[in-house]
Amino acid sequence: MPLIALTGGIASGKSTIARRLAEHGAVVIDADQIVREVQAPGSEVLAAIVAEFGADMLIADGSLDRVRLGAVVFADDAARATLNAIVHPAVRRESAARFAAAFAADPDAVVVYDVPLLVEARSEDPWDLIVVAHAPEDVRIDRLISVRGLSRAEAVARVAAQVGDDARLAVADVVIETAGTMAETLAQTDALWERLTA
């Protein structure tokens, strides 16, 4: 019943690895999805965000304007720290509940927590294995421009706002190199699955 943390910088191929592990039968729990859920209209987290950052962070239907909030916090370390202090405790509680539910449903499950901010927020948690998706910064910047449509300045800012590659690699038990072909990334992921289920 291993509990695996899967992390990587923005545009590092982490989602591709998570999808492949899910195809093999892993229970993948997505930290970003939990963040969206704990920030839903009516939540204590959303109320705290509005109290801190203002009602103009909401769109007409009362939900969070993630783009507007992102523009504020990616440009301001103090604002990002404030947001994290609001969001991370709620995400930690919800993720723990989901891990417990997955293992209650199947004690032999391989549970994978897809978590971008592992080093920033969760590196001390009792993971059985930390897997890092890794591609050089220039590759990730190019992906953000070509795949997600960001400007070069936006892409560079997003990468710069995250912890550096050295810090992620320092906590890694397994590194999956994603700068090559899709087939190479999937082959490394398949080898990881064989190791987890051996």
UniProtKB/TrEMBL annotation:
Localization per record: Cytoplasm
Pathway note: Cofactor biosynthesis; coenzyme A biosynthesis; CoA from (R)-pantothenate: step 5/5
Q: Which reaction does it catalyse?
A: 3'-dephospho-CoA + ATP = ADP + CoA + H(+)
Looking at the keywords, is Cytoplasm present? yes
- Residues engaged in binding ATP: A11, S12, G13, K14, S15, T16
**GO BP term, pick one:** coenzyme A biosynthetic process
Keywords in alphabetical order: ATP-binding, Coenzyme A biosynthesis, Cytoplasm, Kinase, Nucleotide-binding, Transferase
Q: What is this protein called?
A: Dephospho-CoA kinase
Show the Pfam families listed in the entry.
CoaE (PF01121)
Quote the EC number: 2.7.1.24
PANTHER family xref list = BIFUNCTIONAL COENZYME A SYNTHASE-RELATED, DEPHOSPHO-COA KINASE-RELATED
Q: State the protein's purpose.
A: Catalyzes the phosphorylation of the 3'-hydroxyl group of dephosphocoenzyme A to form coenzyme A.
Source taxon at top rank: Bacteria
**UniProt entry tagged with the keyword Transferase:** yes
Which gene name does the record give? coaE
GO annotation, cellular component aspect: cytoplasm
Which molecular function terms from Gene Ontology are attached? ATP binding; dephospho-CoA kinase activity
Q: Which family does it belong to?
A: Belongs to the CoaE family.
